[in-house]
Amino acid sequence: MVDAITICEAGFKAPSESDLRGPILSQMVDDVKKDLDEQCQIWSTKGCTIMTNGWTDRRNRTLLNFLVSSTGGTVFIKSIDASYLCEQIEEVIEDVGEENVVQVVIDNATNYVAVGRLLMERHPSIVWTPCAAHCIDLMLEDIGKIPWVKRCVERARNVCKFVYNHSWVLALMRQYTEQKELARPGITRFATNFLTLQSMLRSKSALRRMIVGEEWSSSSYATTLAGKDMADCIFDEQGFWVPCDEIVKPLVVLLRVVDGDKPTMGYINEGMDRAKEAIRFIYGGDESKYGPIWEIIDRRWHHQLHRPIHVATYYLNPTFRFIPSFKADVEVLNGLYEIMEKMGPAGTSQIDLFRELQLFSDAQGETFSRLVAKDGRTTMMPDHWWNFFGLETPNI
Q1: pTM for the full model?
Q2: How far is Cα of residue 387 from the mean position of the Cα atoms in its chain?
Q3: Which domains are present in the chain?
């Protein structure tokens, strides 16, 4: 706002309070409604996902933000008290239009799980999907409880705490890291602990130069117990940096499964498998190291996150469907068929749907056999690939 004012010519007169509260505000409301109407058009043609994000206010009330996501973007709908969660979600479904909703993505807590199951009972065409990012965050929490991982994270947290609690040390650190920060650990998001390790690895050389530098050596901080502990940690190659590296590499792979701006539904199933294989490779096939992490991933994946829609979107993702190593096992096919039965367009027989599916699988027919369709499998996003040919997007 200040930058905009400074480039105005002399004599610029700011809007009056009555203008801001009246016609200007009304115009802004109309603009937002226009944007929302455009989004609604996309919901009715391409489908959408209802998402919730919970938080606690100063009065200790659990509140939920409702958002609707589609190929046109994400729109905030409203924020509500979570006391009557299922009824509130159903109000949002009614506002958006049940026929437009493909899935509802909510948290993984026990009460949310019960709500998700109840929603699917009341609305058979809608899929409830646990939040993938939250589930992976819980995987990281479990991994962080492994003793040697916990010890490494605690040492990194102590270094960050010491640096950011002392302005002089923080300024010195920024001087050596060229203003790069150490990602500070959070209280609730366990991923930040591992991002802290990653940022420390990137600044390893700079931190060591700082500790051996004259400014640090001659400072009073270098003689404190916390300062000595930090120096010991930074120069502890085998006790800190080696395990730090062993932790970061596989977990960054795991985080990338759901990290990024592109739609991830069609990539989660394959992404989890690839993440596990990458973790095994990183540990050189040593089951004593990768085994406990695999157990944590499998437990959360199979008992909490995994849903038929994951394998269905995996099957319909041309990026994976047409590679030689693709395997449609019983689990994948059963998930695909279940989703087809739930979401098949009204008036369309299942036989017709299976015929269309066969054309896609065999890359046959007027559309799927085209050269441009084959070339676009790996160069286009799945939803763009389906839309490009004027086909009904499977909302992946």
Answers
A1: 0.69
A2: 24
A3: 14-130 (3.30.420.40), 137-303 (no CATH), 307-388 (no CATH)
